[in-house]
Amino acid sequence: MCFPRTFPPPLVTExxxxxxxxxxxxxxxIEDCFYTGGVSLAAAALSVTERxxxxxxxxxxxxxxxxxxxxxxxxxCGLGPGRVLPGLGHGVQSWMAQMGAKTPSPLTTLDEVMTxxxxxxxxxxxxxxxxxxxxxxxxxxxxxADPPPLLAGVVGPKSLTLAGRIADxxxxxxxxxxxxxxxxxxxxxxxxxxxxxxxxxxxxxxxxATAYRIMAPWLGELVAEQRTALRPLPFFDEMADRYAxxxxxxxxxxxxxxxxxxxxxGTMDDALAxxxxxxxxxxxxxxxxxxPDIDIARSQLDQILELARR
Length: 310
Prior knowledge:
This protein is of the alpha/beta class.
């Protein structure tokens, strides 16, 4: 499960405990500017669970000094050895500009930051002077005994190519369809042992048509902005044409196979089929966003746990 950025911080321990007790594998905390902090949420979740993995999706590379980022990740690994999945990314550039942290080349910056963080987590003493990262014999006092995979939360082809070279995997934001996973792995070059974490949207009801009507406005917004994750869909152009001509009604009436590609949208059988398709495409971790309404999100936990135990 993903922990939405708008949820009050105390809820993270409630949800983490229920996921841990109910058999789910992971909780992913979302760090967006300027909502709740990913590191503190992750620490809280790790402290009240025994087996649950906690993912950081994602830490903006320039929001913290890379030495502090490595120190925070190492501390989390000390709290939950083997249970931390850290993700780093460019960060939304408008947010980075708001806080005076935007750099001229996000690609170069992410390259330098991820390389430095990986080396520090591996216990190395790091001296480097790049365009962004400047270290003079920096070394962690307590590096993790077993460094976690460092994942790149990226979207476009250049960033995915970089991830294939410097990261241990990727975090793909919603809607991470099987088509998008295959395309992303092609861009990354299919590195060996590459961990693919994806975020997905569930809307699981007894009636498919109702689920489609609920999710059509969400999908329409993504189509209108031509979200990168949608472009690899074989039916994207036809879907965009439907939306241009008929609005959300054109999306509601799409073939069910299209909806099944986009998320866990429809019946429970549709949701299970989507999970199978994500895994067949190469996903290792699948995190579901609950509804933004807390009461509805609580009710969705049973569905998430049912899916986790499939």
